[in-house]
Design goal:
By secondary structure, this protein is α/β, with parallel strands linked by helices. Helices cover 46% and strands 19% of the residues. A 4-stranded parallel sheet has the order 2-1-3-4, sandwiched between helices.
């Protein structure tokens, strides 16, 4: 069974965001992977001094076929340096994994399937 890691920002750590509502969307998306025969895990990262080690821990926990980097990491211009760090951590710690990008928390399955 192919495996996918979805990396995203922990919605409970973003001021002004309804973390519970977004987490519900993300959990539904995670469940959809199983419906497509894909083993998937999600790592939701807090943007603090634990971020890099959390990403490395998730990347090295399994031999991933695809790593999906979520829009919460990729889209805000203020996170450009963090996005670069994440891409380079994927290259270093999961070199055999393809990299995919979703457009929202609801299309990570489709992003992963493009690279499987």
């Amino acid at each position: 069974m192919p495996s996918t890691l979805v990396l995203g920002i922990d919605p409970h750590t973003v001021p002004g965001m309804d973390g519970d509502a977004l987490r519900t969307v993300l959990d539904k998306e995670l469940a959809r992977f199983g419906e497509h025969g894909i083993d998937a895990s999600m790592a939701l990262i807090a943007l603090d001094d634990t971020a890099e080690s959390a990403v490395i821990g998730a990347l090295t926990a399994h031999a991933w076929d695809v790593v999906v980097i979520g829009g919460g990491i990729r889209k805000p211009e203020t996170l450009l340096v963090f996005f670069e760090l994440v891409v380079n951590l994927v290259r270093r710690h999961a070199p055999a994994a393809a990299i995919a990008f979703n457009t929202s928390g609801g299309d990570s399955v489709e992003a992963a399937k493009r690279r499987l």
